[in-house]
Structures are given as C-alpha cells and as structure tokens.
Amino acid sequence: MTDFKGRAAFVSGGATGIGMASARALCLRGADVMVCGHDGTQLKSALQELEMSIAGHAGRSGRVWTCVADVRDLAAMQSAAATLMERTGRIDHLVCAAGVQIVGSVLTASEADWLEVVDVNLSGTYRACKAVLPLMVRGGGGSIVILSSVQAFLGKRNGVAYVATKGGLNAMARAMALDHAGEGVRINVVCPGVVDTPMLREAARRVAPGTDGTEVIHGWAIGQPLGSSVGLACQPGDVADMVTFLLSDEARYITGAEFRVDGGLSAKLAM
Predict the structure, then answer these.
(1) What is the pLDDT of residues 139-154, one digit of tens each?
(2) Is 162 marked active-site?
(3) Rounded Cα–Cα distance for residues 83 and 88 (Å)
(4) Which one of the listed residues 10, 162, 220, 259 is annotated catalytic?
(5) Which of 66, 105, 226, 243 is least enclosed by beta carbons within 10 angstroms?
(6) pTM here?
C-alpha cells in the first residue's frame, strides 16, 4: 500500500459513502485526515467507525479528526482547513466528495432544486479548493481528487441538475490542473458508476418504496459488465483505492485526467 505517513489530507463530504471510504484508506496508509461534513450526527458516527478501522493498525495509521463544515460556507471551509494546518503544519491532499442529487428535469425541478445541487456539487467543490489550495501551494504542492460521476459523460433522465454539475466538475478539474501545475499541484477526477452508497440507497428506495433498496441496487449492478460477473455493486472502498492512487506519488505525472470506476458501464452500448 502507498505510504502517506507524515502527510495530511482534507476530505469534504467525508461523513458517508466514498468520502468516508477515502478518509479510511488514507488513515490506514498513514495520513492524518480532517473529515468535514454538514451533519454533526453523521460525523460523530463516521469518527467512531474510522477510529475502529484504524485501531488495529497502531503505529502505522494516521490520526483522524472531524469538523462540522458545510461546503456551502466558504468561511467554514477555510476555518476547517486552518485547523488541520494548525494540527499538522501541512495539507498535502484534498478529496472533494460532497454531493447531493435531486430528481427532476428542467420542467419538473424547481429553481430552488437546481440552485441547491449546483451550490453543493459544483460551487461546494470550488469552495473546498479555494480554502485548501493556498495552504497546499504554500507547502510546495500536493494533489486533489474530485469525485464526479459517469453521468458527466452519459445522460440520465430526470437528473438534469446532477448531470450538469458532474460535467462541470470534470471541466473545472481540467482548468484547475492547468492553473496550478506550475505550483506543484495535481488535480484529477474520479467518475464512479453504480456504487452502494447512502445516496444510491436513497434513489433505490424511491424506486421500491418500503424496501431497503437492495434488490434494485442488485439489478443496477448486474447491468454493469463486471457487476454481472460478480453480482455485486461497486463498493465505496473500490473507488477509494483509485482516489488514493491518484493522490499518491505513484501518480506524480497524472493531472487534468478523468478515471472511470464503473465496472465497464460506460464502455457498453445499450441496444
């Protein structure tokens, strides 16, 4: 495993799903990690889970902290980044994992729905980067991974705001990669497909009310080439493995790139 000992990472949207899996992977590889989110109860639960995960790796794992900081609030993000800087003296890595999904087309989604998705997914990533980048540059560089989606490439009915923001994140990462390459900062995007996260569970329960959504997710998973062979949806840890690779020195010559972790979904022609 890549050694992140002596490094510090900031994870926005880290209380659940891929964000928390990325925080866990970084801690287990030695990084000190600040996990941010908007929900204090979720963060408390996440901290307990993360501490349990790293408890058996004393001496090898890093430290982990949580901070209530909403990506819709730039001052809160800057304060959280400053706290990590005070505790570690550095910020080497940033994972932008905060996101929401609201169902609707241009005609059925309200303007408030549209603005909320844009504010969290797109503007929230901008704020996380704006808070962390100056500290990262001051330390001589680092690496950033933005969580997007295969929906940045493939359209989906009744997901206009979500799809638009994911496409925007990919474009934003390319622009940022050019802006900050000379400062030693790499920026890449990971685009998952069907991943068994709380967000996906919520979508599955809308399809099958009164259930936990497992059967629906199973159906979606087997629609992916690899999912059909193993019968399982991609797990958050599978995506976190790509996140940690891109953050690591092994990816030192990779920037402005998009990586799909989708079990072959976007390689498949639906017909």
Answers:
(1) 999 999 999 999 999 9
(2) yes
(3) 9
(4) 162
(5) 105
(6) 0.93
